[in-house]
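Complex record, two chains
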Amino acid sequence: MTEFCSKNTSGNELRSIAPDGISGMIFTMEGIRNSVILLNGPMGCKFYHSTTSQFLMPRPALYLPVKEGDEAVEVRFDFLNEWFFRQPRVPCTWLDGHDYVYGTLEKVTDGLRYIKEHVPCDLITVVNAPGASLIGDDPREICREIFPDIPAIVLESPGFSTEYYDGCDTAILELFRQAGDRLWKDAVKEDADSSRKPTVNILGISIWQKYALGDMNEIRRILSLCGIDVNTILCAGCTVDEIRKIPEADLNIVLYPEMGLSGAKWLQQNLGMPYYVCEVPPIGFDATAVFAEEISQLLKTDCSKVKEEIEIARAKAWYSISGIYNACGKPDGTIFAVKSFPSQEKGITQFLSDYLGMIADTSDISHTKAEVVFSDANIISELMLRDKEFCGIEIANPTMGYVDVIEKTLLGINGALFLTEQVLNSFMTRII
Amino acid sequence: MRDHLEIAVYGKGGIGKSTVSANMTAAAAMKGLNVLQIGCDPKHDSTRLLMHGIAIPTVLDVLRDKGTENAQPEDILKKSEISLADSEIGCIEAGGPKPGVGCAGRGIISAFEYLGKHHILEQYDRVLYDVLGDVVCGGFAVPVRREYADAVFLVTSGEYMALYAANNILRGIRNFDGDKYKRIAGIIYNERKLEDEDERVRRFADAVGLPVLVKVPRSEVFAQAEEENCTVMELDGAEREKNVFNTLADLLINGMTLYPANPLSDEDHERIVLGKGEKSASKEAGADGKPSGAAGADELPCETAFPETEKSYTSRRPLYGCAFNGAASFSVHLTDAIVIAHGPKACAFYTMQTISSPGKRNIFNRGVLLPSSISPNFVSTDISHSEAVFGGMDLLKDAVKKAMEQKPGAVIVVSTCVAGIIGDDLKAVEEMSTDDIPVIAITADGDMNGDYMEGLRMAQEIIVSRLADRNVPKEDKCVNIIGEAGIVTNKGSNFAVMERLLSGMGIRVNCRFLGDATAQEVKGLCKAKLNILAAESADAYQLKEYLVKEFGCEFLEEPLPIGFEATKNWVNAIGRFFGCEEEAARIIETERKDYEERVANLKKHLEGKKIFLTTINTNIDWLLDTAFDAGMTFAHIGVYNYLRTPINVTKHPERMNIVEETLDAGKTRQLIKELKPDIILSAYASRSDDEQAVIDVLPMVPDLGVMSAVLIMERWIRLMQTKRKGEWERDRVLFEKYFR
């Protein structure tokens, strides 16, 4: 759904440096394994998504023949491939001025046919770039015609300057709307098997989030401690088979409502599945305890192991925090600012305020006087240019360029410890 | 009767679609159907008769004024003023921008998305779309998409252009449906009382295989209804006219036979409509090829919905990146300017990433904060749906005004493809220039005006032509550096090397166009007696050519030097130009001593080693020189020559015998196996499992000065002293096992 947005009239705050809805759509669909997204747009819209997607999740190499009949070579060494352009993710139709006048569907057709012939996949998505959506080209029929055997999704209107998370939410909703019939036409929930663990689906997390892989592991771990299985973490490394099994789960959990609530509502309306929305996402010890308690209550399981682990983690954290506190009186009273999407901001703010006794600066981020700023690298580096004295902690993409090999998390018990660790280290320059 | 049916009424502008639609709607409602009529014309007068002259707010006006989240269905859905006992008529006008601005087609798409979101259509038994005269773009074709229109009525008179428009509409529908679907209900013939009119319409109908459903007689009754702001169906009498609409209403109630779209070629259309002959055997693209007319609804083949046609795009080369990105990335190096991206924030974001990634890496790795690499002077207008539909000039002017309040050296506006498609007139903001603050428009229009490099060229030429003062007096011993690569991590260190060499001869840098310069420095560009090209790239040469032609700039033959030989020649040339040969000689001697010492050490380790090199088509003599100085040889030099330009990797003809064009990764692998090099050097590091060579990556922008290649080769020695091949390199098989 395209949105007419009210304008930000608050003046020259930090600039529009965040991605918008089209990136949300692309990275949401890129979170489905063994699927291909054809971007119906110019190459200028492709590069960022192709490069970034490759880094967000480990993916197998893509081999394609340079010419018909050739032996396949890794596509990143094939300079001439006219759809992939040396990047294995997010092929595009390289729209130019001509296409905006005469239409884009010829290239879409050929691009889809190429993918059909050379790149086996379980799901295909066409995403219109803003220019293609302006001229009103609708590749739905073509897509379904060329891929009659797999779910074919067309995201026709990516939005103009909408929020990243709106794109995620829309993509999930469209996935259900457009492929639901095919995926779940015979879906009948079997009677509860008493020996089977309760099972949930997780919605509302995106692979583009910083530490997404670690977040997913931690959520699975927490739920496992509660005796709950996770069928799928939707669009965050899931498979089409997992999506097929969505109706078999007992509950849908929406971690960040901005990115998955519409999908959960659709599943409720159309498949009768109940859903749980985190009022505050499981960031920090308290929110994690509430998350485990409420879900366990809904599914009649036991969350005592989570509570036990939280207790041990708090004990461990206390030792580190008290050491810093003795040296510099912090974290109590430290002013912090968080700039991210709303529910993550809320979760981090609550944790830092309630658990670490820090004080939230809720003024516009460009005017912040915070000592610690939690945000993405673009905001942090811009604030540095404004000669602000603060310590920047990255909680969102884009990053400064640090390559994470070990999976870290901001969620759950390990997330609470990791955030605590980063806060404590931000005080180090103040300790003599 | 089907529960829900949606019908699109198409025809040439002014042919009477709205009158026909309103009367058909009224007739159907009077027979008990709940009918929704949606006007899909920006002039929003489709429902005027149904509303008895009361204008209703359009969907797009409401969405623009209230925002999607606040707009309520009751704001746009109005009940007709016609009194009905058992049914209801709903009226909606999609609306659109003012003529000449924005994108009306996009407006239709947005309006339909809103209607879909609120499930408004499903509330009625029948929905009638009254659609703008011709299928001018994808947006106006939305009602005819199969998710909306179940059936299509064509309204036409016997006028040539009305029939031409009807045929065009069939083409539009054909594009959607191919051979597979039948959705045309037939022709509503709105009589104009022309000579031979009945026959013309009949000939056309026969040729396209459609029935003439009704003939709407030319009658004063319609004028009377117009005057009274009501439908004919509400007038007393007028039974002949009412019968026509009752017939149509019966079709809406009872259903209708549907036919496929079989448009005529232009030639056939002219021949048949003007009565000059029969339809030829030729066909419209995508038609079934059967001889003329009346292709039976059930006889059409269904195998191919998307026929093979000759590709229209194969002669166009793909555009790498977009002109917007190139222009914006270049412009931010005018450090005291504010650069405004006129487009959706996604475009600004991609460019921001291009600009700021090296800057962020510099902060992270080296603690270096380079303002232009973080780009504090780049903003976006954040075009939203409102601007996409209604035009973005007001938004842009506000952004320029706000930027000027900050007293920048200049304001530069760069357009994206969205701004280009909606037709925003970027040049208009140049009128906002003041004596102190020039406003410069770069109409890149995303990639509509070219690729990244074209955008770079546009920005270079437009900025220098707007800012540089040709009449500024020349100053001695100062130079300009022209065409530095903007987005590289070693830009700062390279400039430091070059500045050290220049200052050794008492020469200062006047302006770095546009490595980083203020508007004032660009204004004084012509002060420098000598200009030095920063690189041998195509864009740098283009800029040189422009500056020579337009500003009479004098250039040093040698670009900024990479490697010892180039540095020696460059310093000597500058010494000669400014008459400081002695200082130049001293600098060269010092550099030579350092270079020879380091090369002697290289030779101990690398002499006799064989290099296998693949590179893009740029000069690499700096590397070849030092490799030969160190006693190394080249097994093979392969050049990826994407742009099909003359091979340019060396200026020494005798070296060309080891150079070969390559485009084939498979062949490269085979050659490596055969030639067994000690060092494999390329733009991208990669190795197969059985290779034992040292692998290294050739930098895109090498370090300047005499040590360019030495530093790289010293790394090779270190690599040779290690196991050369980390154990990790064996683990690809594990990756493929666990992450497939």
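Note: The domain at 326-430 of chain A is CATH 3.40.50.1980 (Rossmann fold).
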